[in-house]
């Protein structure tokens, strides 16, 4: 797989995600280790300085699978808010971890359940809390 692209995370999201990863129920999960590695390589900025084209927590994004050509509209959420039927994807799901911090136009390779390789490219962000001035989400 290619070198992962640079990512940007808000300091608020980083604090909340680190608390999530510190919880005993989450810390032992393989997904927690993957998210932790992503957070370690992230460029961290204040919420008010977050570029509007970056996927943050609670962002509604459209992405395309460059391998299969499928388009997906997803909202990146914390685990308790995940609901696949409503396209709310947990940051602990492989695709959620992969999307966190990407900018519009960036792609990332990831393995879907079952080992199928995908290449996701963020094509647009319909809603980002920071860009909307919503710093409480």
Q: Characteristics of this structure?
A:
five-stranded mixed β-sheet; 137 residues; Chitinase A, domain 3; alpha/beta; kinase activity; single chain; globular; two-stranded parallel ribbon
Overall description:
The longest helix has 12 residues, at about 10-20. The protein has a single domain (about 10-125), classed as Transcription elongation factor, GreA/GreB, C-terminal domain (Chitinase A, domain 3, Roll), CATH 3.10.50. Helix content is about 25%, strand content about 30%. The radius of gyration is 14 Å and the shape is globular. It has helices spanning about 10-20, 25, 30-40, 95-100, and strands spanning about 10, 45, 60-65, 70-75, 90, 105-110, 115-125. The strands form two sheets. Strands 5-4-3-7-6 form a five-stranded mixed β-sheet. A two-stranded parallel ribbon has the order 1-2. The chain has about 140 residues and is of the alpha/beta class.
